[in-house]
């Protein structure tokens, strides 16, 4: 029996029309789909009739499938000759442990292909109607996870010192400590935004300043999954917000 | 006459199947398409029969359409009631002056919608078969342009100090000075890669170390457009490369 293969497919932020054509084709070609739980449920409608679906959610704090078990499943199906399609939210190459999965599969001699997708930080910026890197404000953008494996936090002072837009993933539950830490380097008036469920029909956007973003997020019940965006470039979103007057985007304090 | 609108569509890195469904729908809905020159020529096959195509390339050093003229064209068509689709390579919200275009259009009272796409840094990582943020190596990734508006370079020491993967855009022509500058903070053995024409059929990948990446790129005639990737996470690409033995990915020096 020939060894199968694994395709890591990036499902994008949620709405199915933010999938790429290549992702949809890969999903249709799979024998077994392993689907993460931040992925739109409707994605299974794109599968082949014979394909089997296994949901392998891993949300922090909730009931979850351990990473080692997911990797074992992928190896097992691939070694049975199946084409395994592992579907991850956003872009599989930004956070989400694809690095470990790729290394594990290669170690087992299993071919891995990767299909890119739209990461939620990009979808958040699109919702806010801003560039992540408006050149009046910065030279780039940093995508960073607030959730480090050893329980510590990133070195916010060093990140703030770069002057770049910060796109902080998995930070909604500790937005108060993050904004406080960044406030030691950045001015309280630095533009800030938080977007929950970016790129889905449930998207909630909030624009404020570094000084009041935590209070605003709490007042509007903005929780995980959300992306926090900090930096001068987000100041363009503030204008956009007031121009469009969307209720969820009003600032609590002027 | 009603005012039209502008949709900024991200065309992704090149291959048409890396477009999102939403992008393809937006292109089909446009009356006028303004197409950047790093975008796949075949994208015009997705347009409506009546739609007009204007190519507005702006490659560094070559004949080009000035930014102000592009913005004037967009405003003019939109104010004539047309649906203008502005097509940019990669993701429109990462570099590429979308920030200025959005501000200009809003100032003129023109509605702007944004459709995300795959940026070339993500496509480069997919080609290399690595995560941008393998958690054994880093907490995130920095997307930075080497081409600053005032002719200076980013503060490489500060960026290197973050310990994150660096994805450097528009840096191929000065890869020697960039790698030298980063070498003051990072070890010469730090994994490094450069991917030209990422996400297209012409893709060329090269994996080396920070110390020899510039010489390798020169020896293999790797030039713009290319993404340079630096950091421990790229070490996983080195393994991938030697395992796959693709000629363009061999290192010149061991």
TrEMBL record, chains A, B:
Domain (Tetrapyrrole methylase) ranges: 5-213
InterPro entries: 4pyrrol_Mease, 4pyrrol_Methylase_sf, 4pyrrole_Mease_sub1, 4pyrrole_Mease_sub2, CobA/CysG_C, Siro_Cobalamin_biosynth, Uropor_MeTrfase_CS
Family per similarity comment: Belongs to the precorrin methyltransferase family.
Pathway(s) it belongs to: Porphyrin-containing compound metabolism; siroheme biosynthesis; precorrin-2 from uroporphyrinogen III: step 1/1
GO BP annotations listed: methylation; siroheme biosynthetic process
Gene Ontology molecular function: uroporphyrin-III C-methyltransferase activity
Keywords (A to Z) from UniProt: Methyltransferase, Porphyrin biosynthesis, S-adenosyl-L-methionine, Transferase
Keyword Methyltransferase in record: yes
PROSITE patterns attached to this UniProt entry: SUMT_2 (PS00840)
EC number: 2.1.1.107
Top EC group: transferase
CDD domains for this protein: SUMT (cd11642)
Pfam family, one: TP_methylase
SUPFAM superfamilies linked: Tetrapyrrole methylase (SSF53790)
Protein name: uroporphyrinogen-III C-methyltransferase
């Amino acid at each position: 029996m020939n060894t199968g293969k694994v395709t890591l497919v990036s499902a994008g932020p949620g709405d199915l029309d933010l999938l790429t054509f290549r992702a949809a084709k890969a999903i249709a070609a799979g024998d077994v789909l392993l689907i993460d739980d931040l992925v739109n449920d409707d994605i299974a409608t794109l599968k082949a009739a014979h394909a089997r679906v296994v949901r392998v959610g891993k949300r922090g704090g909730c009931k979850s499938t351990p990473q080692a078990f997911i990797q074992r499943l992928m190896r097992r199906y691939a070694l049975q000759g199946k084409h395994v399609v592992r579907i991850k939210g956003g872009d599989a190459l930004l956070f989400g442990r694809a690095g470990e999965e790729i290394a594990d599969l290669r170690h087992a001699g299993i071919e891995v292909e990767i299909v890119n997708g739209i990461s939620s930080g990009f979808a958040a910026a699109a919702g806010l109607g801003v560039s992540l890197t408006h050149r009046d404000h910065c030279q780039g953008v940093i995508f960073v996870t607030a959730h480090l494996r050893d329980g510590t936090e990133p070195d916010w002072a060093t990140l703030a010192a770069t002057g770049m837009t910060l796109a902080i993933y998995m930070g909604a539950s500790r937005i108060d400590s993050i904004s406080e830490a960044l406030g030691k380097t950045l001015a309280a008036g630095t533009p800030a935004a938080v977007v929950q469920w970016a790129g889905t029909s449930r998207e909630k956007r909030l624009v404020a300043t570094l000084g009041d973003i935590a209070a605003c997020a709490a007042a509007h019940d903005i929780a995980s999954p959300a992306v926090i965006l900090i930096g001068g470039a987000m100041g363009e979103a503030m204008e956009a917000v007031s121009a469009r007057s969307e209720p969820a985007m009003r600032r609590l304090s002027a």
